[in-house]
Amino acid sequence: MAVPWEKYFRLALQKKLSTKIQGQNVDHVPPPLLRLLEKRQELVDADQGLQAQKEVFQTMQASLKQRWEQLEQKEQELKGSFVRFEKFLQDAEARRSRALRRAAEERQLAGRREAEALRLRAQLEELQRERARLQRLLWRLEPCARLLGQVLEQLPEFQEVPELVARFDGLADTQAALRLTERQRLAELEEARARLRRLRDTWQDELLRQGQRRAQLLEQLEAARERTLHWESKCIQIQNTAAEKTLLLGHTRMAALNLFQLVCQHQRRPPALDIEDTEGQLEQVKLFILDLSAMLAGLHQAKPAVRAS
Questions:
Q1: Contact 256/282 with Cβ under 8 angstroms?
Q2: Three-state SS for 129?
């Protein structure tokens, strides 16, 4: 920061005065002036020190600013490097994942191939055992084949051994079916004979049970007839009672209607209820009787009071 001109001239004047005073004899200077000059000299020194510190601070600030700019540049470079390194890590991780996936797939493929090889080896061993079994069977059946060839030579209606074997198999199947049918028919015959014996043994008991059953049914029929007559008489009695109740209900409704009409005539108003509304008519009659009873009670209470007066 630049020093103001007034302050600059004051400092220059102070320097000159201090130089002149130093050149003169100090003994001729008054003590107050000497102290003032000392204070000014201290102010000048302090101002110079501050100016030097300010210049140093400005220099340090400029260097710090430059250093900060360098640090920001390095930070941007580090950020770019970090981004590139992160991308490199992601690419490396992707390559590693692909490699692991390929390795896992290859291991699975190798496992499947190994399992397939084991299965084929076991199948081959099974086929070899089957081949050995068939070879032994062939050796064992070779005399039979020669015998069939000789039989075929004696039977001109058959051209090949399979035809002869098929004919023999058909006959064997027919014989087995006939034997099975024979056994079934024999079993059915034995079952029919057993049923016949049971029927011969039990028909007397069955006849007795049926007679007892007929007697029980006749008794139940007689009891049912008696119950029917009883309930018919009960039904007739109920119908007669219902007719009486219906007649009584009609008389009651007619009496209620007459009372309601008398009440309406006494109150000098037309009937407001339906003829079939018996409950409403009885309610109106009840209200009229209650009002009339209250009125009579009031009159009875008023008579003693009049006599007493």
A1: yes
A2: helix
